[in-house]
């Protein structure tokens, strides 16, 4: 796939978070891009799912709604992202594109990554991996680190949980690893959805076959649940019980015999 090279390509962003410590190494600024092809019912950023700006009930009593999402050019966003470069340099940090799914805005994401690399910034892409292979291939040279989630190894279960099958996600992951990209593979542990022994066994076998050294378990949290009900035309989040610490440690124990390091948390 070829993308038109224009430095004024625009995209839609719903948040820019400075001094982030959990979206890659060091101190980072994370831009959250709108639009995601998946529909995970545990999503903690549901305001990132729709591609267009949208109203959300406001926490400010002076206004009923606030607009979520703003149009911005790649150049403008890169200027915002580069503002804290002194902190990136001192901490080994950089910038992260997250969402939503950044690859749902491929031309914009590519341009932002390119411009950040021109400035010498470390770039991280937080992705579901659900994107055409040619898009992954296009962003790969400008991405220092991929944060890459596996949600379930069984494609039918993956589709039931997220609305999309997993073959494309796994194929893209295998390509990235075989081509030498730096990939942090993560598994969001969702109680009752993907933490049963069978699902973990399939995961353990797959990660061992991939030959990577480490898997990050991301414990489920309900911090984003309140946002679902604030979004117009979005159903409320389905309640999911919090994972017990004991079960999380058990998940870790079940995966460790497969021969890679398993960590808890990002
Ligand atoms: S892939 Fe991520 S952003 Fe998209 S719906 Fe799932 S959790 Fe939300």
How would you characterize this protein structure?
The strands form two sheets. The chain has a nine-stranded mixed β-sheet. The protein has nine helices and eleven strands. Helix 1 packs across helix 3. It has a single domain, classed as TIM Barrel. Helices cover about 30% and strands about 25% of the residues. By secondary structure, it is an alpha/beta fold. It binds iron/sulfur cluster.
- Cofactors and ligands: iron/sulfur cluster
Q: Quickly count the helices.
A: 9
CATH class: Alpha Beta
Identify the CATH architecture.
Alpha-Beta Barrel
The number of domains is: 1
What is the overall pLDDT average?
92
SSE sequence, one letter per element: EEEEEHHEHEHEHHEHEHHE
Across the major sheet, the strand order is: 5-1-2-6-7-8-9-10-11
What is the number of beta strands? 11
Low-confidence stretches are: none
Radius of gyration: 18 Å
Q: Structural class, please?
A: alpha/beta
Stated plainly, the CATH topology is called TIM Barrel
In percent terms, what proportion of residues is strand?
Answer: 15-25%
Sum up the overall morphology in one term: globular
The name of the CATH superfamily reads Aldolase class I
Distance between the termini: 32 Å
Instruction: Summarize the amount of helix as a percent range.
Output: 25-40%
Give a quick account of the main beta sheet: strands, pairing sense, barrel closure. Answer: 9 strands, mixed
């Amino acid at each position: 796939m070829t993308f038109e090279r224009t430095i004024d390509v625009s995209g839609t962003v719903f948040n820019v978070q400075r001094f982030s410590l959990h979206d890659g190494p060091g101190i980072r600024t994370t831009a959250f891009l709108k639009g995601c092809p998946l529909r995970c019912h545990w999503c903690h950023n549901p305001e990132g799912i729709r591609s267009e700006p949208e109203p959300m009930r406001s926490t400010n009593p002076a206004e009923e709604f606030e607009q979520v999402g703003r149009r911005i050019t790649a150049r403008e966003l890169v200027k915002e992202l580069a503002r804290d470069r002194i902190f990136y340099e001192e901490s080994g940090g950089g910038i992260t594109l997250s969402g939503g799914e950044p690859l749902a805005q491929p031309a914009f994401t590519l341009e932002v990554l390119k411009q950040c690399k021109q400035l010498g910034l470390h770039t991280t892409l937080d992705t579901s991996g659900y994107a055409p292979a040619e898009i992954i291939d296009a962003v790969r040279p400008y991405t220092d680190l991929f944060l890459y989630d596996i949600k379930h190894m069984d494609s039918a279960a993956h589709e039931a949980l997220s609305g999309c099958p997993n073959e494309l996600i796994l194929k893209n992951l295998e390509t990235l690893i075989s081509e030498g990209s730096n990939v942090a593979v993560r598994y969001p542990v969702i109680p009752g959805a993907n933490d049963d022994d069978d699902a973990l066994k399939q995961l353990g076998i797959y990660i061992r076959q991939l030959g990577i050294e480490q898997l990050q378990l991301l414990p489920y949290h309900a911090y984003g649940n309140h946002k679902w009900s604030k979004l117009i035309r979005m159903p409320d989040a389905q309640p999911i019980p919090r994972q017990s610490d004991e079960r999380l440690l058990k998940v870790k124990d079940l995966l460790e015999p497969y021969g890679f390091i398993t960590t808890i948390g990002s």
